[in-house]
């Protein structure tokens, strides 16, 4: 798949086959994470891929969406708001850094034929507890990982004129 095919193929997948994720695909995802850019190259992230059934069940309980349990693995994206770069007024930039890193991993998974779905709609304290994560780390996003069972229709997008302008 070329880069633009990968971009167009990525969709949020909410139905999964039970087949396990091959190690080769995990290796590609890890390599894609390693080359992600971050402010001052501080790389304030750490990623886990959870296949442990007990921890998966705790993550699913913390999220609340039953469909997540179908996936054979769950990506857990951690950010560190102490080691990340901060804006001059002191605001941590970890959400941007982690977002870029997560999308690298998501696109690599897509290129490997795997499905993902960004998930942030959970209570962070509960998700940190479910994954044994402690401050200054926290779970900034999770995603199911596995082979898609159902691929939905592409979601509509805003018109290009509205979202992308060249100012000369
Ligand atoms: C930062 C972020 C958080 C999201 N959180 C959730 C979530 O908690 N639950 C969920 O089902 N989808 C979540 N999504 C998926 C979006 O709903 C989805 O990306 C959007 O509707 C566009 O659809 P597509 O990904 O299939 O193109 C999230 C996406 C992003 C980028």
Provide a descriptive summary of the structure in words.
This protein is of the alpha+beta class and 168 residues long. It has one domain: NADH Oxidase (3-Layer(aba) Sandwich). It is 35% helix and 15% strand. It has a four-stranded antiparallel sheet, sandwiched between helices. Helix 1 packs across helix 4 and helix 2 (23-34) packs antiparallel against helix 4 (94-111). The chain is globular, with a radius of gyration of 17 Å. The model has no long low-confidence stretch (mean pLDDT 98). Bound molecules: flavin mononucleotide. The site of flavin mononucleotide has 8 residues, from loops.
Strand content: 15-25%
For this structure, what is the CATH class? Alpha Beta
Low-confidence stretches: none
Bound molecules: flavin mononucleotide
Given the structure, what is the number of helices? 6
Mean pLDDT, nearest integer?
98
Any guess at the CATH architecture?
3-Layer(aba) Sandwich
Query: Which secondary-structure class do the elements indicate?
Result: alpha+beta
CATH topology: NADH Oxidase
Biggest sheet overview? 4 strands, antiparallel
Label this structure with key terms.
168 residues, NADH Oxidase, 4-stranded antiparallel β-sheet, binds flavin mononucleotide
Give the topology, please:
Blueprint: H1 3-9, H2 23-34, E1 45-50, H3 53-63, E2 73-80, H4 94-111, E3 115-116, H5 124-130, E4 137-146, H6 160-163
Antiparallel strand pairs: 1-2, 2-4, 3-4
The structure holds flavin mononucleotide.
Brief summary:
35% of the residues lie in helices and 15% in strands.
């Amino acid at each position: 798949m070329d880069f633009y095919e990968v971009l167009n193929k990525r969709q949020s997948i909410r139905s999964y086959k039970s087949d396990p994720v091959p190690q080769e695909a995990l290796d590609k995802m890890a390599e894609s994470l390693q080359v992600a850019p971050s402010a001052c190259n501080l790389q304030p992230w750490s990623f886990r891929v959870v296949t442990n059934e007990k921890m998966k069940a705790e993550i699913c309980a913390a999220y609340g969406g039953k469909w997540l349990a179908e996936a054979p693995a769950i990506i857990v994206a951690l950010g560190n708001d102490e080691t990340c770069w901060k804006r001059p007024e002191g605001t941590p930039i970890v959400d941007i850094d982690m977002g870029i890193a997560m999308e690298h991993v998501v696109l690599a998974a897509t290129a490997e034929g795997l499905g993902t779905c960004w998930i942030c709609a959970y209570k962070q304290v509960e998700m940190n507890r479910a994954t044994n994560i402690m401050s200054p780390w926290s779970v900034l996003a999770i995603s199911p990982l596995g082979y898609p069972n159902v691929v939905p229709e592409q979601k509509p997008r805003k018109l290009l004129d509205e979202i992308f302008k060249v100012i000369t």
